[in-house]
Specification:
alpha+beta; single chain; 6-stranded antiparallel sheet
Length: about 300
């Protein structure tokens, strides 16, 4: 929502944090409490980049390797959107927002959000066979990151939502309905004090964004073995960090705020990684100022 907000502010309008409140209403519906550690599967190039930058990239949802998986929640969006569009307890203006959503979504307009939603993927275990084969290969790596409750990822200018992926369409419907209800509550509490056209535009964008969360955090049952968590990043204020590299667009998400190093619990090395990989990685990590952490060969591939 960041680009829209900046546009309205440049025009002299004060939205008074409305975009942030809408983002928060969506995040509440989807956020979960991750385990004490989460793992990110990657190759050697990705590992070196993460160690050097002390950050991880969240990639534009339209650039995901398997964009077809983002269509699994289409039926959920259509069903929940229609339910709200036909709810006579809402005003005509509110129902029109949901009709707008269902029309755009049916037109396969997902790339319209490519400037707003960025995602990166994690898992609760370092020994997930499905993810080793799909993302890391036996020559790759699984980075086990220690998450500290008091150090939840908070980056100025980014709205961040940790959430588990659901493989159950009924759960997906419940989440999206909760997000829509939160957006409506925020709209009713704030919209009367804001410029009508701009506020409605942001509300429609929030409804669209919530639907993209449904797509992001919902996958088909045959992927259940991945046990996936995702981090969704939504630029919502001026000053967020964005790097652009063709053909990939991404935002840079520091793994710890205020310049602190990421806390690496363990690095798991694929069984077919080059001989001596552990020694070279240890040398690089020490050179970059990391404290020692275990580096072990995976035994499950």
């Amino acid at each position: 929502m960041g680009s829209l907000t900046r546009k309205f502010r440049k025009a002299g309008n004060t939205l008074d944090g409305f975009d942030t409140d809408l983002d928060r209403a969506i995040g509440v519906a989807y956020a979960g409490t991750p385990a004490s550690t989460l793992c990110h599967y990657t190759n050697l190039r990705g590992l070196v980049g993460i160690l050097k930058s002390k950050s991880i990239w969240a990639v534009d949802c339209a650039c995901q390797k398997d964009s077809s998986e983002l269509r699994h929640a289409d039926g959920v969006v259509a069903a929940v959107g229609a339910r709200f569009a036909n709810d006579l307890q809402q005003t005509e203006r509110e129902r029109a927002c949901f009709r707008h959503l269902t029309t755009k979504w049916a037109a396969n307009a997902l790339p319209d959000l490519d400037a707003d939603l960025f995602i990166t993927c994690f898992c609760g275990t370092s020994q997930n066979q499905e993810l080793w084969e799909r993302f890391a290969t036996p020559r790759g790596y699984s980075i086990e990151l220690k998450l500290i409750e008091k150090e939840k990822l908070v980056v100025p200018g980014l709205g961040l939502t940790w959430a588990p992926v659901t493989y159950d369409l009924e759960v997906a419907e419940q989440r999206l309905a909760e997000a829509f209800a939160g957006i409506l509550t925020t709209w009713r509490q704030r919209a009367s004090r804001l410029p009508v056209a701009e506020a409605e535009h942001l509300a429609r964008r929030a409804i669209w964004l919530a639907s993209c969360y449904a797509a992001t955090f919902t996958k088909a049952p045959n992927h259940r073995d991945e046990q996936e968590w995702r981090l969704a990043s939504v630029p919502n204020k001026r000053g967020f960090v964005r790097a652009v590299e063709e053909p990939m667009r991404h935002v840079v998400v520091p793994l710890r705020p205020k310049g602190r190093h990421p806390v690496l619990q363990t690095l798991h090395v694929g069984t077919e990684a080059p001989k001596g990989a552990e020694r070279h990685i240890r040398h690089l990590a020490r050179h970059l100022g990391y404290s020692d952490f275990p580096i072990v060969r995976s035994c499950s591939i």
